[in-house]
Structures are given as C-alpha cells and as structure tokens.
Amino acid sequence: MRLLAVLISAVLLCCQGAQAQVRTYDQMIAAGELKVAVYKDFAPYSFEDAGQPRGVDVDLAQALATALGVKLKLIWAPAGEKLDDDLRDYIWRASQLHDQQLADLMMRVPYDRDYSQKRNELGELENDHVVMFGPYQNEQWQVAYDRRRLDSVGSVAVFEQHPIGVEVDSVPSFYLTSVFNGMLAAKTHHYPGVPQAFAAMKAGEVDAVMAMRGEVDWQVHEAHDPQVALAQNAYPNMGKQRWEIGMAVHESNRQLSYALEEALEAMIREGSVQAIYARYGLQYEVPEMYQ
C-alpha cells in the first residue's frame, strides 16, 4: 500500500508539472514568443523544404504571431493515432516523448461542435481541457484524374472500371472499398501517402486519386500537367463530405484565443489568408462564420 501511495503521488506530481507548463496570454507576450504545434511532413500545410519550414499552416501561424507582436516558434508534431491524442500531447498534458513541451496553439483542428462536445463512456467531455476556435479553412474530399486515360468523372461508379489511388487507412480508402457493396474495391489501390498515389497516377498505375482537396490541389499544382484535372462528382452514402478547420488552445487560455480570432478575422477579410492559400496553388473558401 505504501508503494502504491508513492506511485500515485509521483504520477500526480508529473501531471501537475505538465499542466504547469500551460502559459497564460500575459506570459506568452512577456516571453515574446508564440509556440505553435503543426503537423510534421504534412504538405501543403506544414513541411520542411531544404531545411526551411513551409506550408499554409506555417505561413498562417507566422502571420498570427506577427499580428500579436511576437516571434513564432514551431513545434513539429508527428500525427498520433487520434486527434484526441494530439490535443493531449501538445495542448494540455505534454507527452514524455516530446520532452514535456506544450504549445500555446495547435493548427489544423476540426471546428466541429459534435467533436468538441464528444463524451466518453462515463458521460464526461473528452476534450474539456481544450478550446477549439477560429475556423480558417473549408476542407472536403476531392478526386483528381488523368484525362489521357479517363474522359471525365461523372460519378464514383467509373472506378468500377478505372483504377483509383488512395492513402492506406484513410477515409477515401474505407469509402471506396465499401460503397456500392464493395463494387469498387478491386480497382482501389493503396499507397503510403497522397504523393505516392499521385506518382502512381503519373506512372499509369491508376487513372485517378482521391484525397483531401488541399492535398490534391497541392499535388496538381506541383505536377504542372494540364492533363490532370479536378473532378466535380458527389460521393453518395459517404456521410460528412465537407468540414471546417480551425485552431485549439488550452481551456484556461481563452484570452489568447480571443486575440488570435480577432487577428484571423481581419486577415480573412483583407484577403491575406486567401493569398497564403494561392501561394501553394490551393483553392480557398471563406468559412461560414466570416461570410
């Protein structure tokens, strides 16, 4: 029992230590630095090019830090198995794997009421330590195809005859292998990531690729191939096909979220955010909140 008590005390002290690293808005301003978590190796949103950080989320984080009058410090976040894990590790209870370093802000978090109000089996909010705010992008699923081998994509039914590439374990993977009682499964080819799927389309292994619109736009932009086109088809029986992307801070740091939201709105209305997206060849739609 004494050993158990010591172990419990040690765990509590570790948790307190991690929680203590959540900085207030005043502490962040005094330090002159905004720590922002962005996903690692996730082009076109956040990635390194010749050792330099690039991407929509990187550029937007820099613009927000500048608006607050502080420097930007990036925290590169390898994606976890679930978003809940990422929010825990970077916003409210730092992981030992990350040297207990917490971010003030995390980019690319779904701005979704159902997700933010999600409860566990005990009826408790799963993300009650986090405030999700500031939608800055509309995202959706998108198909790109090679017109040399496929005239058009009127519907996903064409992929019963034409091979299509998807990222393994992705929503498009599960969708295409299950829709229409699995009729498209045989022609659905899996790759480690979206870049590899596009490389396979260039090599003639598949005639199309399905992924998030931002990733597809980036690959089309980088390909500089006029024969690669974007489809306008719908996705029957898919469920949620469009969603908004925003940001997250610790629930005790609402002052920071208010300041960032004010800066973001000004940037969206003056066209600065759209210009960032255009820099990477991405389509941009103003989120509903700012329309």
TrEMBL record:
<dbReference type="InterPro" id="IPR001638">
    <property type="entry name" value="Solute-binding_3/MltF_N"/>
</dbReference>
<comment type="similarity">
    <text>Belongs to the bacterial solute-binding protein 3 family.</text>
</comment>
<feature type="domain" description="Solute-binding protein family 3/N-terminal">
    <location>
        <begin position="33"/>
        <end position="284"/>
    </location>
</feature>
<feature type="signal peptide">
    <location>
        <begin position="1"/>
        <end position="20"/>
    </location>
</feature>
<dbReference type="Pfam" id="PF00497">
    <property type="entry name" value="SBP_bac_3"/>
</dbReference>
<keyword id="KW-0732">Signal</keyword>
<protein>
    <submittedName>
        <fullName>Amino acid ABC transporter substrate-binding protein</fullName>
    </submittedName>
</protein>
